[in-house]
Design a protein that fits this description.
alpha+beta; 4-stranded antiparallel β-sheet; 9 helices; homodimer
């Protein structure tokens, strides 16, 4: 169960984990199972846990004044799910994080994670790399959203995340890309020609 | 000149800088001046330096296939300017960073910054906080872009960044928000009523 996580950490560091460090990680992360449609986080709650996804798929979304859902993030195996704004600021979350398939996670509180960052160099390095990558991904997404056409955004997304296209329904992908279902459907038909 | 930077670091840490650490920081960051319209970074170059803005204002933008500029970021005093994707991945930048006012910066290479992160706890803490905040800001911006109307986006931006509204022209603000000049102009007229 924890093996995927330990492998993930070792892939993101130049200081491989010692046996003692591995034992501390295994002791700290707790196992959590969610069935499809169960919530990892609900709007209005403070996000207490971050989760490393061992198996499954989840989506993070907000709901606007008119009741329309807007997907801000999609997750599958080897992704970390949390609302960092809420976890860091201790404010009620604006988001829901829902299991879209039966999902297994390894969860950790922010305080526990900061403790591991202090004690384990590999975790410090991994979190730095993750933070950098998330920031780069966010910048790319912002740039793509303000500069690219719907066609370009879909093509880029499909090229970078082929698995997401297979595992999430079209209306989730459309919402994530900020385009209508109808536009996405038209783009997909054209790209299949 | 370096005082603003030292103050900034001390405001973002619980382990204030020692005299030795301050001396190392002053020795590492170089002073750079740009006149209005000069470039800090040009598209196609690898971003070698990150810069802490002591005085002035800058904008970061990409240019699409049709020659249209898209502003991804605006900066003023006490902001850090760089293209982190390019600096981290060593890839040619997709962005230009241009001085919009006469600007003074303190610049540092990524290797030098990583060295300071190793040696100075305050810098390690500050960069962690900065990374978290940038990530939160990016998430908010993505959520706002896909969920909010142009009116809501402008109102949020004006409330959070009143100085930006005064120092950048309307067409920059419009580009940053991903709306047309005409829409922004209409929104501003309405909000003044």
């Amino acid at each position: 169960m924890h093996k995927n996580l330990l492998d993930y950490i070792n892939r993101h560091t130049t200081s491989p984990l010692t046996k003692e460090e591995e034992a501390l990680i295994v002791a700290t992360f707790q196992h959590k199972k969610l069935r499809k449609k169960q919530y990892f986080l609900q709007e209005g709650n403070v996000c207490k846990y971050g989760g490393f996804i061992v198996k499954g798929a989840m989506r993070q979304y907000s709901v606007d004044d008119k009741g329309v859902e807007h997907i801000v993030q999609l997750f599958i195996e080897n992704w970390w799910a949390s609302d960092r704004e809420s976890a860091i600021m201790l404010t009620p979350s604006k988001y829901n994080i829902e299991a879209w398939e039966d999902t297994e996670l390894l969860i950790i509180t922010r305080a526990e994670m900061l403790d591991l960052v202090e004690k384990i160099p590999a975790i410090a390095q991994m979190t730095r790399i993750m933070d950098e990558r998330s920031f780069i991904a966010s910048q790319r997404r912002i740039n793509s959203t303000i500069s690219n056409t719907a066609e370009q955004r879909y093509a880029e997304f499909a090229a970078n995340h082929p698995q997401f296209i297979q595992r999430f329904p079209q209306h989730h992908i459309a919402s994530f890309l900020g385009i209508t279902k109808e536009t996405l459907s038209r783009i997909r038909k054209q790209s299949m020609k």
